Amino acid sequence: MVGKKTGWWATLMAAVFVMSLSITLAEDVIRIGVLGVMSGPAASWGLVNRYCAEAAAEMINEKGGFEIGGKKYKIEIISIDDRNDPKVCITGAERLIHEHGVRYIIGPNIDPTSMAIVPTIEQGGAISIPYAFSKQLYSLPAKNSILGMIASYQAGPVIYKYLKDTKGIKSIAFVARNDSESLNQRDEGVLAARRLDLGIVAQTDSYEVGTTDFFPVMASVVQKNPDLLVISGAAPADTPLLIRAARELGFQGIISTETAQDAKVISEFAGDLANGFISVGGASTPEIRSAYMEEFIKRYEKVAGEWNDEAGTKVYALEIILNTIKEAGPAAINDVTLFMKAMDTFSMPNPYLKDNRPLHYVGKSDFGQKRQISVPMVVTEYRDGDFETLFVGSVAD
Amino acid sequence: MTRNRKMMIAVAAVLFYVVGVPWLCAGRNYYLGVVTTASVLAVICAGVWLIFYIGRINIGQGAFALAGGYAAAIAVSKWGLSFWIAMPFAGLASMAIGILIGLPLLRLKGVYFSMITLSLTETARLAAQSLKSITNGPNGILNIPLPRDLSIFGITVIPDFATVDKHLALFYLGAVLLVVTYAALYRIVNSRLGWLFRSLQQNEDLASSFGVNVPMLRVIAFAICTFLAGVGGAFFVAMQQSIYPATFAVQDSTYFMLYCFIGGLSFVFGPLIGTFILYMGFEVLQGFKEYQPLLYALLMIGVMLWLPNGLLSLRPPKFLSAKMPSRPASGGDV
Amino acid sequence: MTFMSGHGGSMFARRFHAEGENYICFHVLISRKQFFFGGREKIGMGQVLINGMYSGVQYSLIALGLTLIFSLMNVMNFAHGQLYVLGGFVTYYVYGVLGLPFPAALLGAAATLAVVGVLFDVLLFRRVLARSARDESTMLLACGSALLLDSLFIIFFGEKQRGVPPVVGGVLRIGEGIFLPYGRVLIVVLSVVLIVAFILFMAHTRWGRGLRAMAQDRDAARLMGVNVARYSMLGWMIASVLAGLAGAMLVSVSGVNSGIGTWISIKAFIMVMIGGAGAIPGAIIGGLVLGMLESLGAQYMSGSQYLAIFVALIVFLAIRPRGLLGRQ
What we know:
The complex is a heterotrimer of chains A (397), B (334) and C (328).
Chain A lengths: L3 H16 L9 E8 L6 H20 L3 E3 L2 E11 L4 H14 L4 E3 L4 H6 L1 H7 L2 E3 L22 H16 L3 E7 L2 H16 L3 E4 L3 E2 L7 H8 L5 E5 L6 H10 L5 E4 L5 H7 L8 E4 L9 H14 L11 H13 L7 H8 L3 E3 L8 E5 L1 H4 L4 E2 L3 E7 L2 E8 L4
Parallel strand pairs in A: 1-3, 1-4, 4-5, 6-7, 6-8, 6-9, 9-10
Antiparallel strand pairs in A: 2-3, 11-15, 12-13, 13-14, 15-16
Chain B lengths: L2 H22 L4 H25 L7 H18 L4 H23 L4 H21 L1 H4 L14 E3 L2 E4 L7 H24 L2 H11 L1 H6 L4 H27 L9 H14 L6 H15 L7 H15 L28
Antiparallel strand pairs in B: 1-2
Helix pairs in contact in B: 1-7, 2-7, 2-10, 2-11, 2-12, 3-4, 3-5, 3-10, 4-10, 7-10, 8-10, 11-12
Chain C lengths: L9 H10 L25 H29 L6 H18 L4 H30 L5 H21 L13 E4 L3 E4 H23 L1 H11 L1 H6 L4 H27 L6 H15 L4 H21 L4 H15 L9
Antiparallel strand pairs in C: 1-2
Helix pairs in contact in C: 2-6, 2-7, 2-9, 2-10, 2-11, 3-4, 3-5, 3-9, 3-10, 4-5, 4-9, 6-7, 6-9, 7-9, 10-11, 11-12
């Protein structure tokens, strides 16, 4: 039934497989995992996480490491591609936890993968910092995931309210990509708009992943004449196309999104047509960023080849993990329960912003427990090739 | 090789797999997890191979795995059924959908069939997203409990997964699925049914003229194929404890097809070897970071250039070959 | 029939003002914080049909190369979308970054893709087809090449979306509520010219006739003295150039990114299924039909248009297994 050949293959595979992993856990190294999609159509999401972590780690290591309990630790980033596939993601999480001794994982990027590894990280005693918005990830009984950025359902209401108050918008339309993430973000947006008594003129329009021509979907939305057009869960790749299509079809209202975008991508394709476009940015706008952030941007450029404004929202994970461990004590390097205890009281000055506002854990009102990093909500407006800060808000505790 | 000798090798291999592998991987959950995942992927892949065997290419197996996954998730979460009933139910549900879709679509020949199956996975994802009352739409079905114990006449046959080593329990579940699937597949291929399937691959018109009920056979093969996908989908739902419309995607479907090619289309154990090589290959190459997908692609292309008929065609032992004709006369029917 | 105008929209209003006579524009220059909302232009059915045409012509161009390779070689080229992406990136660098004229970028893309097409044939497909027991084995090769190109794109071009501004700026207004950006009109015209040129080439040149003979019956063509190996190479070259030119032109309308290739291929397969595999007119009709369906679907079935298209496709193929014009 199974012959020598098969046996030979099995042996060879096993040998190569074992050789591929070298387990040398040095004493003074903290290993941080980056797990996310780094190949295929959505590669940019995971790659930005990886570049951020690598750039931040390089900066720390050059200063001799990160000090915890009087001892300096080098930071090692181990990144794993999960192809946005829950099966591969579980395998990746197990590899990080059981083979590399990783306790803190940055990623994954979408709800299906983030949710799939919940049993794995809980059993393996690890913490993940997903960039996915599902509330179940951060609400009990789940305990081991921390939201690393501003969720769309947190930014949306703030932006709509701002536009209602300052620009008098009365009607709103939504357009979403036809996948779980985007549709959920749209549904949350619709709820928020309803609470603000905005007239919702379009909420079912959607486009497929991989769409290249946005005229059809935009024609359907633009003809409903909303004052505000919200692109829910916009991928940075689609955003300039959507903006240009809307403007070329004569849309005159405001366009906004709740996710992070990249100014260069927008300026290349949409140019001045995108002026006035509102999105949620990171710590990268010149008005607010600190010298430390400037240094980080330079380092990121070295690691990734070019700066990506998306990274501005993803700089926080590594820094806050390490500082929380520091507060919880060296034992927290391998014991996440100590880390979780420290989360309740932890606070540090935000090193990336000029005003050094405190960086701590929030989420009580949204998730019932502190399972979110208090990333500042930087609402930006695109103008002539760059993002300008409109205002900096924060998430409710 | 005599029948006895074959049996002995088979028993030895199975023994190594169910005793040796867990022993070697003791305390190494990651290794065990990789073998488990590859095992069940190989089960799903076996179905795709059977469709190759009747001369069609199924690039939509992910759709049926998704259907099976949802069937199991709904049975366990919403109806409160035991996983041990839900898993066969998932297979049957997926099979029912497979027959329903297969009846019209299996009439499509060659490249048309593969192209339409290519869009099935996306259709399934969109359907799962739209049928909110059944599937909970884009929110997915979450917090699905682990398989509980199974008792027959008061004797616990399978323990509650939550009370034992979950990795080991899932491994054995995967191992049982794998062994049963491939034993059955081997049996089918070496039976009269297998002979009939081969006749379809060679020439459907000729087979038909000999009184073979061609449409019926095609549907039978497709039913087996989609049943395996459903069972496999149910397994992954148990492992992930959650399901989303994107849990199985187009890339899964294409990979199932590629696993068959790599292993070799004319060998029963082709999909098994192909799945293990490619899935483990992906893991082995993880260390290469951005060059990983590049090397992975080169691995695929390299194998194809070196052994266009699959890895097992490397001087295949005679008994492994399922007696396929060398090259179809016309070659026109893709 | 009025325009709302604010800071963001003022430029537009000005641009339209110069062109249209049959609309009234309230052009109010106000501070950034204020916006004025008036009644706005309605987009009509005409726009929906024109959008369908826009997409349809682009799609036809994409599907042509795919169907050519299929009819000649019996290869389902999963890497077709990646060839499109490569064409897009060449244009991005030549036209967008280096700032050379657009035609130069098109030539550059065509030349690059011609080379890649020949390499595909000589290094990969020819070798495998000669030794493989089943023609389908080339699918693995195609998928492998797609993956290879995808990862090379990520390494060399990065993960970001790349785009260039429209080749010609401005928007043409016809009648009420119809918007025709000049950039798009230009691309559609160029696409049509290319499609027509390809059809003429296939119908009236010696090479075209040779390719058609080969597509009809490879063995018969060989007996009639067609150099099958050379024509295969030519076929790969032309198909790749078509894919690359599609990408090169559309980069000004749709942009390009490293991950879009797979989706382009899948869409191209749908078009080929609608029109019928292996038939050149089938690819064109399939592209137009899909473009029109998308546009009408977005208008009348917003949110579930693609599910509807897929289901309709399955039903349609169940009734008409060879698409509209598929060859036997």
